[in-house]
Amino acid sequence: MFRWKVFFSLLSLVCAWILVDIISNPSKKETHWLSDVASYPIPFSLIEKIALELDPFLKSLTTGTDYFKYYRLNLFGTQCSFWGVEDGLCGNYACMVDTLEESALPEAWKLSSLGKIRGLTAEQPHHHASSTGSPLGGALGSGTSELCVYEESDHSKRDYCIPEDESTEENIVYVSLVDNPERYTGYSGPSAHQVWRAIYRENCFVLPYDFVVPLKEFSSANKLEAIMLHKNNRGSQNNDKKYNAMMQESVCLEKRVFYRIISGMHASISTHLCKEYLNKMTGLWEPNLQCFMERVGNHSDRIENIYFNYVLILRALAKLHNYLKNYTFCEGDVKSNAITKHKVNELIRKITYFPNLFDEKLMFDTSHNNHAMHLKDEFRMRFRNVSKLMDCVSCDKCRLWGKIQVAGFGTALKILFEFNDSLHQDNFLLRRTELVALINTFNRVSSSIHFIQEFHSEVYSNKKKSADKSIFFGYISHFFQNIVKNIISYKSAFNVENFIKSFNVEYNNIKDALIFIFESWLKVFKIIYMHIKNRKSIWGYFL
Question: What is the rounded CA–CA span in Å between residue 341 and residue 324?
Fold first, then answer.
């Protein structure tokens, strides 16, 4: 009897606590889950907690190290390969990018004389250091380590984007990402829409007819396929037809991933633009809730795709745990190299503590089917086309951050699908621009998650204020309406005495309503107090 009493007491306590928590924290209920990344759904709250923990490490890297603050690219010299952009040029001041021009460099270090700029990767630890500690002649400023900016450019058929270092050398510029933040520029209209339409159109994959047939024998090899097979075949007599339908859906997993990466990148960019939106009335950069809700907030799939991109890059960085241990970031500058390496290792070490939220093995299963390589090649080719489309963006600042983020996602895909972290791969190389783009893109997506939470808090706060105001102004409106009605009804014999009587009647109604609201709140606090008191008494009983 005593055990049953204890059991029901504990059960009552747990139920009461859950009820109070739900009532007092309605916005914290877990209602959003991320799918398609592993064999189980992932709650948004877990991703948000991870993003919150990693944010200080990312900010320290992207703003506190020369290695990740500067980016080398061909921003102005490459023409759009798909259409002319003369009609879509952005003349807005906000579109401009502050760059370090080549003319500011000493002759010995101009790209035309230097050729391919060299630096270190993890697989080249014995490369000779630069002969000077200031290869750019101090053009980046006296406090900047220029040895953190150079790299070697190697073409690889495994790249998922067009490397910036393969562009025409005389058009290469250096950009400070800190001095050129991603924000609203006013770039929109047909030119911007044309670029995004072309990017989404790259999601049209062409697959061989017999792609799905050889996979039937190995259906259990893919967890997602097995789950879908069970679901589609349940209660069906025509299993072959259902199986083919399932396999077509499974093939579309890669297509869905491609789309979600693009959609998540698009939504993340929009979130940043709305977070730092130019208020033309005040001239200040400030959050624009309406902009966010129209572009992102009212579209749950876009928000989900931002979270999807976060776990994708998170997994890519986790795979680099061993690769970056011997990575030399700033050849010839011992101090800057030590600081950068320490900060990177701190971030990666923290990431490895978290569970694996993205299972790349669900895609491109080449061990059981040769046609999977065809799909992977097309996936890579189409993402490379997306990187080419960035040259068609007319806004300089938009093109800068578009190139960086496409390169960042391309690097993440390269790591996920071309790098085996359980083996020592001497032929796998990461360029400096790839690593810089990867970290800065991860920081962009991480910031988007924080901004989404801030915007949602503002929406929740506005709804609460709106509800309170509607009650208050409803009474006020009713009060004045009755006064007007009474004045009209007494207009034939209107006097001060009648007005005062009418005013007193409505005043008493308002007072009674306010007293009722106040007493209702008192009852709520009383219930909470009694609940806490009962919890303590039950706890004391067990002690």
Answer: 8
